[in-house]
């Protein structure tokens, strides 16, 4: 770990460099890391079954509707990054727009959400590792080893250790690894889709369905609750694209590349999801039959149950793709919390140790290791307490994502308030799009918070009649508030706006003039 003293934030409250390896990530590299963080193979196999049960055949329509708030928020992220490329992203931008208190909580939401995901991804990687070995060896008993508590924990910690080692090294190592893992993952998913569609066209399939454009019609969704389920689904299957922004201080052309990478990433992912959804519906249908997408017995891992009927002897490739998806996402997900913690340490919102950058690899070494230790400890505790408790924490993830995505979207709207009507483009990209995206996420946050009060929500566990998901969500936000208040006494300079101050909005014309003057 680095022993060098962290760079100091400027005393005037402006943005500053943190010592990361500038110019090492290009557009393609950022997109690949973004796709890796989303983990399409893992997220889709876990999400497509429950979606089929909720809405039936219009799964593509749900994907498109759920894609809307993510795309709208992505536009807001892009505008903020164009003006303020900073590794702290949500933390930095919310601080500049609303002040240190809101900014600190936005950073807290991002860090907590990603640490929850890290622990879950490691657990998923363990299960699919043993599942893959079981398929290759033909011994079903091997798969059960994943559910032996101490074997599970030991292998999970090994996955976490490997991901931490790669993340601690330079971004070039991360890029090279992700090029291989993401290319393989997408290749297998496309192969699965093409073969499934080809078999249906050739007269095969479990419950073959002719292609129907009505699957893409949002108005074919039967109820508002089903539509709400689609929006909630988007939080799970699209989350992770914002990692492209957290690398902004390490990308080439940091004002433009991260925003473009975020847009390309979400469009690529939605296209892949639509292809997979169409292939699965055409091949298996949405009934509750043996291989139907509505069958609750296969919904935890739809790819596994369909892989053999679709790919035959190559079925193991699908399990390998899901394992690759979760393992690669485990590594790339470290990018987000490590750089947010780095920025918070750099600007004095957390202890200065978090601002340390490795002098050899130019990565946030201390913050990376801290994230790994917390995520590993969280996984071990939750696994020992209850597997269902771990699942409840993942449901809590949706609230945390809505929380910090929503704050960031509103930060875009407020920060650019004097530029809204400078051009038609500004009306949409700095005002309308992020505002609508933020409102949708705020509604989802409140709705989930209310629904999770019901003990039946999630695993069914409750404390004093309140659902455990609700309690976890409130507890996480409460802990964040307590730590923030503690830091306000320990590190008052940040909370007085001395290390990272609010940025007074200016008109687009004035911003251009100032930019020309400083060239």
Automatic annotation (TrEMBL):
Signal peptide stretch: none
One Pfam family this sequence matches: AA_permease_2
Gene3D superfamilies (UniProt xref): Amino acid/polyamine transporter I (1.20.1740.10)
Keyword line: Cell membrane, Membrane, Transmembrane, Transmembrane helix
Main location per the UniProt record: membrane
Transmembrane segments: 20-42, 54-77, 97-118, 149-168, 180-201, 221-241, 262-286, 298-323, 361-382, 394-416, 428-450, 462-486
Topological relation to the membrane, as annotated: Multi-pass membrane protein
Record localization: Cell membrane
UniProt-recorded name of the protein: APC family permease
């Amino acid at each position: 770990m680095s022993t060098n003293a962290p760079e100091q934030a400027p005393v005037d409250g402006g943005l500053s460099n943190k010592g990361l390896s500038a110019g090492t990530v290009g557009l393609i590299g950022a997109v690949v890391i973004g796709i890796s963080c989303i983990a399409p193979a893992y997220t889709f196999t876990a999400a497509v079954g429950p979606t089929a049960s909720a809405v039936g055949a219009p799964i593509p329509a749900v994907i498109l509707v759920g894609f809307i708030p993510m795309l709208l928020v992505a536009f807001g992220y892009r505008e903020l990054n164009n003006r303020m490329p900073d590794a702290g992203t949500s933390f930095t931008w919310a601080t500049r727009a609303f002040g240190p208190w809101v900014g600190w909580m936005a950073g807290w939401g991002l860090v907590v959400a990603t640490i929850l995901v890290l622990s879950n991804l490691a657990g998923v990687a363990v299960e699919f590792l043993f599942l893959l070995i079981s398929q290759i060896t033909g011994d079903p008993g091997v798969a059960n080893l994943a559910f032996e508590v101490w074997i599970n924990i030991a292998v999970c910690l090994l996955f976490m250790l490997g991901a931490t080692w790669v993340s601690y090294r330079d971004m070039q190592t991360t890029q090279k690894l992700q090029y291989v893992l993401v290319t393989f993952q997408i290749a297998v998913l496309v192969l699965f889709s093409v073969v499934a569609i080809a078999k249906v066209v050739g007269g095969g399939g479990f419950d073959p369905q002719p292609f129907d454009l009505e699957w893409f019609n949002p108005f074919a969704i039967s109820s508002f609750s089903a539509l709400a389920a689609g929006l909630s689904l988007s939080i799970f299957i699209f989350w992770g694209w914002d990692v492209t922004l957290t690398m902004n201080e390490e990308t080439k052309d940091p004002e433009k590349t991260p925003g473009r990478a975020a847009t390309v990433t979400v469009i690529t992912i939605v296209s892949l999801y639509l292809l997979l959804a169409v292939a699965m519906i055409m091949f298996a249908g949405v009934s509750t039959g043996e291989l139907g997408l509505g069958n609750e017995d296969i919904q935890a891992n739809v790819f596994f149950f369909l892989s053999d009927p679709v790919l035959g002897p190559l079925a193991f490739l699908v399990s390998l793709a899901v394992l690759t998806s979760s393992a690669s996402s485990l590594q790339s997900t470290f990018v987000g919390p490590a750089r947010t913690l780095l920025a918070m340490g750099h600007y004095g919102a957390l202890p200065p140790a978090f601002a340390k950058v490795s002098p050899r690899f130019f990565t946030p070494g201390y913050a990376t290791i801290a994230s790994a230790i917390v995520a590993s400890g969280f996984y071990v505790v939750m696994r020992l307490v209850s597997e269902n408790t771990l699942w409840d924490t993942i449901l809590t993830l949706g609230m945390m994502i809505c929380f910090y995505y929503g704050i960031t979207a509103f930060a875009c709207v407020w920060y650019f308030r004097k530029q809204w009507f400078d051009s038609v483009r500004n009306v949409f990209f700095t005002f309308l799009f992020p505002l609508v995206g933020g409102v949708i996420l705020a509604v989802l946050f409140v709705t989930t918070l209310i629904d999770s009060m019901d003990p039946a929500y999630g695993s069914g566990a409750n404390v004093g009649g309140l659902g455990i998901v609700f309690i976890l969500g409130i507890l996480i936000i409460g802990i964040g508030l307590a730590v923030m208040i503690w830091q306000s006494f320990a590190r008052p300079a940040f909370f007085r706006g001395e290390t990272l101050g609010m940025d007074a909005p200016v008109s687009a014309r004035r911003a251009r003039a100032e930019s020309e003057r400083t060239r």
